[in-house]
């Protein structure tokens, strides 16, 4: 997996912008509506970055391990957890080689990671082995058929960005990855139908577009979360 340590100092700046805060809220609603976190269960947040989802898993009562290859990202995540008084184990490791025994976790989350993986299907297979029988995984990814993916693809042509070598997926492709990993694909959630316009004055308009999009633009949302369950 790629190491984005150079982004660590400014990684959380996105969430402080009006657009970033709105996207984060909608994405979390999608992910956690599927995750259905239960108090005391063991959860693994793969490629946790600065701990955005690890912290939320812990707030909802899970016993959480956050895994990332970047020590710089993990340092920020640890500080954030300590500031909130949250007891989370953060471990430096490659998402392709997680150092855990099979059948260790009730829940795995993987958010915006597979876009940067050489073999996403193999990653999902390895993660599936870490799940307990009937355990579940929630994968969040960027939809290939969205304005956001289009913008990032065009921008990467003219500027060296992290999205230059990224690959965007469809829900159908992700479901096939889960089936290949011997997991049952379940429900999904799709959000962020509005265009990537960063202007505080437009937020109310963006939410109107979001509501309309959910009724009329199925398949074109920028972010998709999908849930899979390990077969007993």
Write the layout of secondary structure elements.
Blueprint: H1 13-16, H2 18-35, E1 42-46, H3 52-59, E2 63-68, H4 71-84, E3 89-92, E4 105-111, H5 120-130, E5 131-142, H6 147-158, H7 171-180, E6 183-191, H8 203-216, E7 223-230
Parallel strand pairs: 1-2, 1-4, 2-3, 4-5
Antiparallel strand pairs: 5-7, 6-7
Q: Mean pLDDT, rounded to whole units?
A: 94
Q: Helix amount, in percent?
A: 25-40%
Record field, number of beta strands:
7
Poorly predicted regions are none
Q: Count up the helices.
A: 8
> Nearest-angstrom radius of gyration?
17 Å
**Approximate strand percentage:** 15-25%
**Largest sheet composition:** 7 strands, mixed
Read across the widest sheet, the strand sequence of neighbours is: 3-2-1-4-5-7-6
SS class: alpha/beta
Shape: globular
